[in-house]
């Protein structure tokens, strides 16, 4: 018989395929009378006496996690090359009321998209964060990776393979499983302080872990953690302090001076106005262009006719936070109680709360919120009605955004043995809540103040900005009492919940074949998911914007200055599922071993129907001691998220080209969810090789491909109008487009989410791990690289029809169909990401160095023409290097015995993120860090 211990040792390194120690234990040889521990590894539900596995898994131990120097869950995931863009979080520049703000970070394995990675805690689902964001115009949600403290993790396991058949919906790109301490004994106290060089950003972390027995049968593990961060303003970094990037030093020559890189805004306190006598005009410093003034006003300000000049644009980089202030608290406990008769009761509880604060500039009125200043307004110097095209009330002070996040989970379970069967059942309830509030300008009350005839209560909208610094702030302040009359606190309260009960059982020897025992696992799960998004009455559409002078009302504008309305939404679903899994040895001889895994799962959703039976098959073959091969094929699915199903009539007004009228004008696009959506289907294929030429060297390579279809999306408004033109040329119409029967103009687009398009993504993962011992210490060398080879988005049937019609010259003007084709490197998705590290340990000393590489990408928002060829703005690669040294105090009789001191420098060369034409902060925050050189000192003590 082929020795399973040898296979186990080989696979242990394969499972750790990126040089990170696996959490799975060896199957120890033991006397017959001793019970051999049965374990399960991520990717299988069968408990076995060996750790053989056919699937590619990255498993990070507590020591591996510490060596990444990560302080938050966001930073920990970014250290793993297979993790794609982190699209949620403050580092990506979010800040609008429709963004997921606060202490949140997303999980996006393979870069497939937020929501395509199943995230577990101790093997069971985590509740999604209540906040949503739009990706490709569709609201998506995520588990918040900041919910769990990095310092409290026992391990982090990442299954880099489709796993819907094993775990269910969302496991398209794979599974992330967080494991917290559950059997700790003793006490551990940890304290760390970090500082970003040259900035006020610092971080303080405190944690306490304890584990103890209560009597002979009960064990308790518990931990608390506190994290505090003082953030920094965008003005602290040269790439973010100004939104005018036209002459930034690192720009390629072809883009220097390009106005596309001037992201300053025309919405300023200088205002953009229209009146009968002056036509279109704006305010400006009187000495800016004296000959152009048409009306002199007080305070060195005058009115000038014409469109708004570039020299007066407002630079938002001067007022924004780059990193939020955060205070975070975590609590976790795990309790086990031996009931006897081979049964154990276990319970788990977690609690998380965080407060995040950041600032942004006040918003201007939207195009749909243009309003009129009455001729008799107290501070109207023109003596006639004036239309306010655009105005930003900066003297009202910054928007102070405060977000409180909380979540909790309570779980009770029972597990045991019955003959050769190992069974486990558990029920849990978990919920999360986000309370988002900000001081905003009430558009109705603001109009009342602007139009007041009483100077003591009137707001003067014609004072301009700061004549000495026309691109920054507003020095012409209105009285605070007047400002207070229209400032209001706007809230968004969101909640999610997840309740689940499951039962699963496994038997590693259900029956025997000539080649060995066949293992089986089967189980049932029922879960309830809920989602609620409660917007402020000023934002949810119940209080539409009205021009107080003309009486005109706009349903596509809210009564909050600068915000479109979004209705409240609420929904829930019940999900029932069943799975079965088999593992069978096909060959087990003296020279080789071959094993097959078969699994299937069915899930039924109360709102969108069943997923269909999703199978998985995987093979693991050891033809010789030094080589292992693995392959898998899996079908998967992703159910539409509750926000995609429950969204009701979200109106958005945009200027769109209408081929029917052959002109562009403002069109209201009303986006809605629907229960007609079907689950997205996918196929996941992978092949891998593990080479172990020596006991201390392991080399792995895994090729993978994901094919998705029926992706949930929405047709852009421009595509709907183009489709309407095509249909009319064929004698019908696009029913989603409503037009005025007289003028023919579009009244609205009724735009429901649809199952659209297909996508194919593929890549290769590489790793090397080499351990060796010397007289001056033990060394571990690792390399982990991810190569994204393909990311193709096929056009939907509708897009294909429009493309063909366009290529035939059927439209009055050529149109552009976006979001299809080769998306590799575009606005993210680098071809290469990698991490290399060397760790050294000698007696009580330890040290290490590691480097993280993110390849180059392309910013498609900015183009240049060179020798007749259109090129897009290149965004350079980025490499950061971290170093650490630590010392353990052992064998001392002092209070310091059991202590460890570690000093870390992250990004030792102080690399700054490569420039991108990104409005928020001048770089791709989803890919790159803004911390610069960062110092951290930590102390821990076990007792």
Automatic annotation (TrEMBL):
UniProt-annotated location(s) = Cell outer membrane
Q: Does the keyword DNA damage apply?
A: no
- What keywords appear on the UniProt entry? Cell outer membrane, Membrane, Receptor, Signal, TonB box, Transmembrane, Transmembrane beta strand, Transport
Q: How does it sit in the membrane?
A: Multi-pass membrane protein
Q: Which intervals hold domain TonB-dependent receptor plug?
A: 56-175
Write down the SUPFAM superfamilies for this protein, in alphabetical order.
Porins
Residue stretches making up the TonB-dependent receptor-like beta-barrel domain? 407-908
The superkingdom listed in its UniProt entry is: Bacteria
Entry-linked InterPro entries: Beta-barrel_TonB (IPR000531), Beta-barrel_TonB_sf (IPR036942), Plug_dom (IPR012910), Plug_dom_sf (IPR037066), TonB-dep_rcpt-like (IPR039426)
Q: Which Pfam families match?
A: Plug (PF07715), TonB_dep_Rec_b-barrel (PF00593)
Q: What GO CC annotations are associated with the protein?
A: cell outer membrane
Where along the sequence do coiled-coil regions lie?
Answer: none
Signal sequence: where? 1-21
* Entry's family note: Belongs to the TonB-dependent receptor family.
- UniProt name for this protein: TonB-dependent receptor
Organism in which the protein naturally occurs? Thalassotalea euphylliae
């Amino acid at each position: 018989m082929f020795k399973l211990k040898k296979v186990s040792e080989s696979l242990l390194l394969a499972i750790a395929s990126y040089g990170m120690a696996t959490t799975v234990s060896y199957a120890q040889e033991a006397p017959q009378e001793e019970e051999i521990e049965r374990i399960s590894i991520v990717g299988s539900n069968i408990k076995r006496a060996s750790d053989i596995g056919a699937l590619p898994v990255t498993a990070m131990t507590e020591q591996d996690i510490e060596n990444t120097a990560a302080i938050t869950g966001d930073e920990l995931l970014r250290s793993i090359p297979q993790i794609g863009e982190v699209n949620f979080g403050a580092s990506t520049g979010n800040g609008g009321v429709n963004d997921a703000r606060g202490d949140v970070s997303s999980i996006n394995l393979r870069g497939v998209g937020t929501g395509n990675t199943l995230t577990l805690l101790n093997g069971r689902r985590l509740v999604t964060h209540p906040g949503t964001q739009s990706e490709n115009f569709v609201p998506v949600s995520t588990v918040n990776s900041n919910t769990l403290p990095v310092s409290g993790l026992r391990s982090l396991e990442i299954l880099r393979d489709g796993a819907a058949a094993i775990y269910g919906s969302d496991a398209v790109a794979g599974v992330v499983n967080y494991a917290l301490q559950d059997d700790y004994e003793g006490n551990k106290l940890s304290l760390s302080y970090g500082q970003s060089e040259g900035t006020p950003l610092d971080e303080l972390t405190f944690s306490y872990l304890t584990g103890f027995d209560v009597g002979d049968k009960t064990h308790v593990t518990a931990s608390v953690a506190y994290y505090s961060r003082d953030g920094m303003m965008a003005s602290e970094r040269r790439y973010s302090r100004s939104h005018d990037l036209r002459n930034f030093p690192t720009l390629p020559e072809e883009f220097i001076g390009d106005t596309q890189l001037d992201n300053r805004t025309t919405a300023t306190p200088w205002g953009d106005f229209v009146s009968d006598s002056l036509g279109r005009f704006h305010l400006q410093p009187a000495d800016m262009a004296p000959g152009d003034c048409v009306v002199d006003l007080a305070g060195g300000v005058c009115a000038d006719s014409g469109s708004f000049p570039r020299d007066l644009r407002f630079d938002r980089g001067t007022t924004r936070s780059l990193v939020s202030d955060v205070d975070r608290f975590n609590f976790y406990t795990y309790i086990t109680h031996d009931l006897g008769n081979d049964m154990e009761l276990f319970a788990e509880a977690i609690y998380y709360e965080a407060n995040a604060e950041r600032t942004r500039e006040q918003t201007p009125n939207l195009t749909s919120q243009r309003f009129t200043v009455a001729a008799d307004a107290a501070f109207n110097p023109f003596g006639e009605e004036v239309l306010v095209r655009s105005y930003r009330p900066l003297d009202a002070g910054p928007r102070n955004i405060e977000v409180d996040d909380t979540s909790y989970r309570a779980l009770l379970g029972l597990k045991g043995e019955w003959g050769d069967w190992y069974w486990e059942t558990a029920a849990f309830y978990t919920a999360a809540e986000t309370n988002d509030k900000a001081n905003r300008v009430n558009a109705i009350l603001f109009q009342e103040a602007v139009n007041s005839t009483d100077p003591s209560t009137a707001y003067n909208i014609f004072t301009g900005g700061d004549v000495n610094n026309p691109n920054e702030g507003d020095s012409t302040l209105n009285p605070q009492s007047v400002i207070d009359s229209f400032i209001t606190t706007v809230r968004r309260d969101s909640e999610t919940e997840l309740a689940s009960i499951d039962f699963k059982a496994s038997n590693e020897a259900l029956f025997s074949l000539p080649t060995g025992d066949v293992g089986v696992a089967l189980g049932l799960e029922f879960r309830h998911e809920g989602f609620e998004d409660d917007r402020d009455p000023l934002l949810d559409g119940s209080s539409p914007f009205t021009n107080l002078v003309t009486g005109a009302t706009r349903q596509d504008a809210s009564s909050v200055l600068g915000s479109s309305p979004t209705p409240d939404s609420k929904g829930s679903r019940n999900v029932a599922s069943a799975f079965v899994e088999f593992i069978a040895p096909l060959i087990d001889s003296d020279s080789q071993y071959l094993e097959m895994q078969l699994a299937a799962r069915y899930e039924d959703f109360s709102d969108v129907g069943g997923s269909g039976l999703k199978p998985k098959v995987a093979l693991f073959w050891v033809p010789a001691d030094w080589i292992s091969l693995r392959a898998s094929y899996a079908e998967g699915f992703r159910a539409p998220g509750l926000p995609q199903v429950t969204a009701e009539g979200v109106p958005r007004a945009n200027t769109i080209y209408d081929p029917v009228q052959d002109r562009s004008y403002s069109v209201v696009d009303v986006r809605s969810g629907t229960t007609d959506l079907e689950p997205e289907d996918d196929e996941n294929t992978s092949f891998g090789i593990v080479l172990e030429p020596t006991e201390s060297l392991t080399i792995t390579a895994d090729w993978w491909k994901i094919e998705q279809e029926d992706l949930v999306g929405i047709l852009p408004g421009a595509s709907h109008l183009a489709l309407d033109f095509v249909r009319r040329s064929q004698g019908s119409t696009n029913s989603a487009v409503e037009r005025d029967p007289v003028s023919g103009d579009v009244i609205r687009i009724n735009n429901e989410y649809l199952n659209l398009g297909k996508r194919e993504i593929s890549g290769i993962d590489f790793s090397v791990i080499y351990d060796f011992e010397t007289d001056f210490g033990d060394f571990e060398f690792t390399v982990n690289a991810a190569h994204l080879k393909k990311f193709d988005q096929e056009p939907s049937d509708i897009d294909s029809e429009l493309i063909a019609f366009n290529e035939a010259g059927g439209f009055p003007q050529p149109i552009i169909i976006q979001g299809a084709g080769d998306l590799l490197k575009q606005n993210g998705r680098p071809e290469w990401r990698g991490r290399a590290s060397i760790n050294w340990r000698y007696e009580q000393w330890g040290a290490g160095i590691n480097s993280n590489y993110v390849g180059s990408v392309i910013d498609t928002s900015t183009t240049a023409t060179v020798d007749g060829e259109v090129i897009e703005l290149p965004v350079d690669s980025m490499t950061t290097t971290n170093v650490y040294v630590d010392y353990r105090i052992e064998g001392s009789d002092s209070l310091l015995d059991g202590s460890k001191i570690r000093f870390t420098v992250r990004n030792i060369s102080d690399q700054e993120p490569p420039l991108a034409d990104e409005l928020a902060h001048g770089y791709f925050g989803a890919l790159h860090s803004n911390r610069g050189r960062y110092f951290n000192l930590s102390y821990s003590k076990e007792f």
